[in-house]
Write a structure and sequence with these properties.
Helix content is 80%, strand content 0%. It is mainly alpha-helical. It is elongated, with a radius of gyration of 17 Å. The model has no long low-confidence stretch (mean pLDDT 86).
Length: 99
């Protein structure tokens, strides 16, 4: 049995890759936010930022820094809610354009 307080290299690589990729996606999302006024794109951007917040919170939670049960349940789902809303806006827009 290993020490539960230590982190192996696989976990560290996962955390670092997840954090860095989420940060890059959020950076580009924020850059796009300044250039767009489209509702669907804005919802996608907010979803990406919420996903990054969820990643940061999950990492903090795994270290025992931010144990808020309600937040840990809401953040992963909140990004998906924004993605769904963006897709709904696009579908409604496409159906209205076709009619």
């Amino acid at each position: 049995m290993g020490d539960t307080g230590s982190m192996d290299s696989g976990q560290l690589l996962y955390i670092l890759s997840r954090l860095s990729l989420s940060a890059v996606a959020s950076f580009f999302a924020i850059m796009l936010w300044a250039r767009t006024r489209d509702a669907a794109w804005m919802l996608m951007i907010i979803g990406v930022i919420m996903a990054y917040a969820g990643t940061v919170y999950a990492i903090l939670n795994s270290f025992g820094i931010a144990p808020l049960p309600l937040v840990s349940q809401m953040l992963p789902n909140l990004s998906i809610v924004f993605f769904i809303a963006a897709f709904v806006v696009m579908v409604v827009r496409k159906y209205r354009a076709g009619a």
